[in-house]
């Protein structure tokens, strides 16, 4: 078999964290090889190692049968590799042709020969069927065209093995289809395509071979025909779901949040939430399951006032919360544990006390006559550190000096003691060690026992199985269905996460 | 009409060209750093130190050219220190720039005291000024009164104005010019393509020092041959303002500098009318700032524009723009 790229035993560590753990990968020439896995599974790291942007701690790389130490992208490019990054690296004020030839300008008498560059860019674009106008400025072009330019950049450097990192993440469905057609024509030309994705649909649609990564390891490499979507989901999300369910007693059942026909757009202005209906009662944990990137983030942002909804309503205690500022929603009872704790949960450069104070800086006893009483804040912070088992030297430590689990506990401590009775909790244990996970779960259960209404967004099925009373599964912005937390079965959740209605599937 | 004629005449144009030169030189220097993505607030200091060392150099070497070289060398030294701190050690560019400005101010004063034993200014003492270039044939073609428009300036005036088209060409057509722009606009792009950001920024800093040095030499060896305390008098800062509004674009830099130069030349004329001198000294700065404000008004941030629009609509009682809130909008 003709192997274009072979990785053996690739290990890459970042301090204590192992992003790639002894990864083996062989990519045949002339195939589209998809590398799929959840965010943080190590896909991009692996490709950066292959392309020379990162140096592996262990393992070997060979390209076209030749062992290679890829010390820099230049080495990779010389071997015919090309990479299209997830975030485009184009210069907006330059023309398409300038961008394509940047770093390898065509010059005549010391000056850049614009005409020749445009001519060659045009030839290239015709040859590969990537329609662009080389004389146009990049600023203002659509992302679909920007991606074509990135691909042309790679082709202009004579790449025969093309790596694409999440190429469809920014594309519309139509643009994605065009891209896949282009990739198909590449492999028909004898080129090799490696593409990274966490979208099942497109992986199943376009690739020949699929490698699944999870937690930095290869779960499996299979031909597409040997795989079903369901198997893929299980391999991606993986981690045998433990049904270590927390004991509970029924809550009061008083309705707290009710969302009906909610629509919203994502940052690309594409629909991210489609007709979402859900309700959460006091003393109940409603879980939201789904592969990351199916609208969960947008749902949390809309409910916390950080993202405008396009349509629909969300009632908190019977009053509309859409169109209100985060502060107003909080004042009405929202406590929010954001999914990205470092971006939205804490200020890493502030002390624990300052982080605890946020949102209550005008309240007694922290503020008196308009001045903050830091001694009172420190006292309260110390009490919370004890209660939530936050491991730090003291309240004046910087938040960024704590471990991920402890930072998360700081967020929980602040939010759970803010007096809100609707808790919106997004990925509470992402990147948190087992011990802290246990503690966080216990605290969430304690809040449930206090008759709080809890909406828990998680991509970890075991977490939902342990905590949630009801689980709603999201797929491409829709709620696919609801499952009783106590009777959760992996099978039907897996189907719904892949966008298949289990009832319909059973009937077939 | 009489009075207008004493204001607006060939002499005013000539004076404008003369007063524009130092700020044009220093702003063109700053254009390199601006394009390369460095907010260089140290122009003032580089210019001042060059002005001082140009005077010293011309006394030592006995030639104006030697003075200019030594002035430029001093500015380059400052530019190098700036680059080392900002590019290599990633220090804050504003802090470093300010520190070097203050250093230049203090250093020139104490060196003046140490070398010349005076405070305030250095005059005479064998300072050789830059020669005036008489273009052959100018008098024949334009006649005696208009020949002074193009002839009889110091060489640096020609250097300054000829640099403008050269810089346009530099940014548009040369590889280094292109890389400077890329490094300033999208450093990640430069990095992935193997362009060394640090090297490009060093080059930009040193080119900036070169031009700031010429600007300084022109100040102390050009039309007046002397050095006075703080003689750059904020021109470096005005250059920074012009650079912010022009984004380092050479033609826009030229426009901004001409405006400042004109206001400067004009204010000198105003002195005839016995206005209080402190008001007159403020004129060029006020005019330049007002003009820059007017220029930027058109490109004022979208946010302000949209806010004003919404407020106008609200006042007029018009319904708000529903911006995609139609129920049908989102449905597939």
Give the overall average pLDDT of chain A. 87
How many domains of chain B? The number is: 1
Largest sheet of chain B: 2 strands, antiparallel
Instruction: Give a count of the beta strands of chain B, DSSP E runs of length 2 or more.
Output: 2
Helix content of chain B: over 70%
Low-confidence stretches of chain A: none
Order of helices and strands of chain B: HHHHHEHHHHHHEHHHH
In helices, the fraction of residues of chain A equals 25-40%
Helix count of chain A, per DSSP? 18
Radius of gyration of chain A (Å): 25 Å
Q: Proportion of β residues of chain A? A: 25-35%
CATH fold name of the largest domain in chain A, please?
Rossmann fold
Distance between the termini of chain B: 72 Å
CATH architecture of the largest domain in chain A: 3-Layer(aba) Sandwich
Major sheet strand order of chain B: 1-2
Strand content of chain B: under 5%
Judged by helices, strands and strand pairing, the structural class of chain B is mainly alpha
Q: How many angstroms separate the termini of chain A?
A: 39 Å
Structural summary, described in words:
With 508 residues, chain A is an alpha/beta fold. Chain A has 18 helices and 24 strands. In chain A, strands 6-9-10-3-11-12 form a six-stranded mixed β-sheet, sandwiched between helices. Chain A has a six-stranded mixed β-sheet with strand order 18-21-22-15-23-24, with helices on both faces. A four-stranded antiparallel β-sheet of chain A has the order 2-1-4-5, covered by helices on one side. In chain A, α8 packs across α17 and α14 runs parallel beside α15. The longest helix of chain A is centred in the middle third of the chain and has 16 residues. Chain B contains 15 helices and two strands. In chain B, strands 1-2 form a two-stranded antiparallel sheet. The interface between A and B is medium-sized, with 28 and 23 residues.
């Amino acid at each position: 078999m003709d192997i274009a790229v072979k990785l053996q035993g690739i290990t890459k560590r970042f301090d204590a964290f192992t992003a790639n753990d002894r990864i083996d990968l062989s990519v045949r020439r002339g195939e589209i090889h998809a590398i799929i896995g959840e965010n943080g599974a190590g896909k991009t790291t692996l490709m950066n190692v292959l392309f020379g942007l990162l140096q592996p701690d262990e393992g070997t790389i060979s390209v076209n049968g030749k062992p290679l130490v890829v010390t820099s992208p230049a080495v990779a490019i010389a071997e015919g590799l090309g990479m299209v990054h997830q975030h485009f690296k184009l210069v907006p004020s330059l023309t398409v042709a300038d961008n394509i030839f940047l770093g390898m300008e065509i010059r005549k008498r010391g000056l850049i020969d614009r005409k020749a560059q445009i001519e060659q860019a045009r030839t290239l674009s015709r040859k590969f069927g990537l329609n662009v106008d080389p004389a146009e400025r990049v600023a203002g072009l659509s992302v679909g065209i920007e991606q074509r330019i990135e691909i042309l950049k790679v082709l202009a450097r004579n790449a025969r093995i093309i790596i694409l990192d999440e190429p469809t993440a920014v594309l519309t469905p139509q643009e994605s289809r065009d891209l896949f057609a282009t990739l198909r024509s590449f492999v028909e030309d004898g080129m090799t395509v490696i593409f990274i994705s966490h979208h099942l649909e497109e992986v199943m649609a376009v690739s020949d071979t699929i490698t699944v990564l999870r937690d930095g390891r290869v779960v499996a490499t299979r031909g597409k025909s040997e795989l079903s979507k369901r198997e893929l989901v299980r391999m991606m999300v993986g981690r045998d779901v433990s049904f270590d369910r927390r004991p509970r007693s029924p809550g009061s059942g008083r309705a707290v949040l009710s969302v009906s026909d909610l629509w919203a757009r994502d940052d690309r202005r594409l629909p991210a939430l489609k007709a979402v209906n859900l309700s959460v009662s006091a003393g109940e944990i409603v879980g939201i399951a789904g592969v990351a990137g199916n609208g969960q983030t947008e749902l949390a942002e809309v409910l916390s006032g950080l993202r405008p909804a396009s349509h629909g309503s969300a009632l908190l205690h019977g009053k509309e919360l859409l169109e209100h500022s985060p502060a107003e929603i909080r004042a009405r009872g929202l406590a929010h544990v954001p999914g990205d704790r470092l971006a939205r949960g804490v200020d890493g450069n502030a002390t624990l006390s300052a982080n605890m104070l946020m949102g209550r800086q005008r309240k007694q006893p922290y503020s008196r006559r308009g001045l903050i009483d830091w001694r009172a804040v420190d006292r309260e912070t110390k009490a919370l550190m004890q209660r939530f088992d936050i491991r730090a030297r003291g309240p004046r430590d910087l938040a960024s000096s704590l471990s991920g689990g402890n930072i998360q506990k700081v967020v929980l401590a602040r939010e759970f003691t803010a007096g809100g009775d609707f808790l919106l909790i997004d990925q509470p244990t992402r990147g948190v060690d087992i011990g802290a996970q246990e503690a966080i779960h216990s605290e969430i259960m304690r809040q449930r026992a206090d008759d709080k209404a809890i909406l828990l967004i998680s991509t970890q099925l075991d977490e939902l199985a342990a905590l949630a009373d009801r689980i709603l599964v999201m797929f491409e912005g829709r709620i696919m269905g609801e499952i009783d937390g106590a009777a959760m079965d992996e099978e039907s959740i897996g189907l719904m996460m892949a966008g298949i209605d289990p009832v319909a599937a059973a009937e077939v | 009409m009489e009075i207008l004629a004493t204001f607006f005449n060939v002499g005013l144009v000539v004076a404008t060209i003369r007063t524009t030169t130092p700020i044009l030189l220093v702003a063109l220097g700053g254009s390199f750093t601006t394009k390369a993505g460095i907010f260089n607030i140290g122009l003032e200091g580089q210019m001042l130190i060059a002005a001082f060392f140009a005077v010293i150099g011309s006394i030592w070497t006995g030639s104006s050219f030697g003075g200019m070289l030594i002035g430029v060398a001093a500015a380059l030294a400052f530019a190098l220190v700036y680059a080392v701190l900002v590019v290599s050690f990633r220090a804050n560019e504003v802090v470093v720039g300010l520190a070097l400005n203050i250093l230049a101010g203090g250093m020139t004063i104490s060196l003046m005291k140490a070398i010349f034993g005076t405070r305030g200014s250095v005059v005479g003492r064998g300072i050789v000024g830059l020669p005036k270039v008489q273009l052959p044939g100018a008098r024949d073609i334009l006649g005696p009164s208009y020949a002074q428009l193009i002839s009889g300036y110091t060489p640096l005036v020609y250097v300054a104005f000829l640099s403008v088209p050269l810089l346009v060409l530099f940014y548009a057509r040369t590889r280094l010019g292109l890389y400077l722009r890329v490094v300033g606009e999208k450093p990640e792009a430069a990095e992935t393509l193997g362009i060394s950001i640090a090297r490009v920024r060093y080059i930009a800093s040193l080119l900036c020092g070169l031009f700031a040095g010429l600007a300084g030499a022109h100040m102390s060896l050009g039309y007046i041959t002397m050095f006075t305390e703080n003689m750059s008098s904020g021109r470096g800062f005005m250059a920074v303002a012009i650079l912010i509004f022009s984004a380092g674009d050479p033609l826009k830099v030229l426009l901004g500098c001409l405006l400042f130069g004109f206001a400067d030349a004009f204010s000198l004329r105003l002195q005839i009318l016995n206005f209080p001198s402190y008001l007159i000294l403020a004129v060029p700065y006020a005019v330049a700032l007002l003009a820059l404000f007017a220029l930027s008004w058109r490109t004022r941030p979208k946010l302000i524009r949209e806010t004003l629009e919404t407020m106008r609509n609200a006042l007029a009682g018009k319904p708000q723009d529903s911006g995609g809130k139609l129920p049908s909008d989102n449905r597939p």
